Amino acid sequence: MKIGLSVPLAHETPQQWAKKHRELGCGSVVFPVNCEASPETIDAYRKAAEQEGLIIAEVGIWKNVLAVDNREREEAVAYSINQLKMADKIGAKCCVNIVGTPHGPIWDGGYPGNFSKETWKMAVDSIQHIIDEANPVNTKFSIEPMPWMIPTGPDEYLRLIGDVDREAFGVHMDLINMVNCPQRYFFAEEFMEECFSKLKGRILSCHIKDVLLLNEFTFQLRECACGEGTLPLEKYAQLATAENPDMPMIIEHLHSDEEYLQSLSYLQKRLKTDSCC
Questions:
Q1: Residue 273 scores a pLDDT above 80
Q2: Which of 24, 129, 154, 196 is least buried, going by the fewest C-beta atoms within 10 A?
Q3: Could you report the per-residue pLDDT of 37-94, keeping only the tens digit for each?
Q4: pTM of the prediction?
């Protein structure tokens, strides 16, 4: 596997950015600029990653392509297409977004309508449109699973893959986001095996973090840094590496460069590697 960080860390040049990640023992990176940057800047970061032997794990979108507001939705879709085109040019493993929602003000929020037949069709149509417009050949579009938004598990992901029916659609594995019930929390190893077995051959990149059950009513889970929860991270790493020895494993959702560096060091020691590549 190739551990990476979801943040670029403080840097002044593309070369410094790439060198810093390599010296920390990272083997993968999240691309630090978007499609609105100049072609020269984009290419400079691509070349810097290549020169340091870093895999570009993902290009993020993080826009609501199902927004009920027409302008917001159209801008999000256009941005998604351009991000996917950029990901294709730089050879990223994937370009990733969430499905989105038209059912409330929070772009990644949980609403009953997220699970309606109408929303499912909207999601499929949107994914197909983005892929068809960008027409990628060197990367794939992917959807990050969510606890309260499709896909919430491997079976929904397989159904989504079938309905989208595009070669350029693959899996972004945020396994922790799918731990959304007692069964998946308490029997995490079995759930991990289920995910990697059912989605085998389609997984492009992974997020790695942890989750902790709170001692409060009713059932409450808190996402946390690696080691602050109960997930068998060794099992996660083992399954990811079996799927692809160069699988990107991206640490995310921390609050500062210092926290990311601490989490990286912890994970390297726990998984008994100092190079992750």
A1: no
A2: 129
A3: 999 999 999 999 999 999 999 999 999 999 999 999 999 999 999 999 999 999 999 9
A4: 0.96
Q: Can you tell me the distance from the alpha carbon of 195 to that of 211, in angstroms, rounded to the nearest whole number?
A: 17
Single-letter residue type at 37: A
pLDDT in tens, 88-98: 999 999 999 99
What the block records as the tokens of 56 is 């570009």
How many whole angstroms separate alpha carbon 218 and alpha carbon 196? 30
The CATH code that applies to domain 2-270 is 3.20.20.150
Cα separation, 141 vs 123, in Å, equals 13
Domain spans, the chain: 2-270
> Using alpha carbons only, how large is the chain's radius of gyration in Å?
18
Q: Which residues pair with 95 in a beta bridge?
A: 59, 141
CB 221, CB 214: distance < 8 Å: yes
Range list of H helices, 67-218: 70-90, 117-134, 154-164, 182-186, 188-198
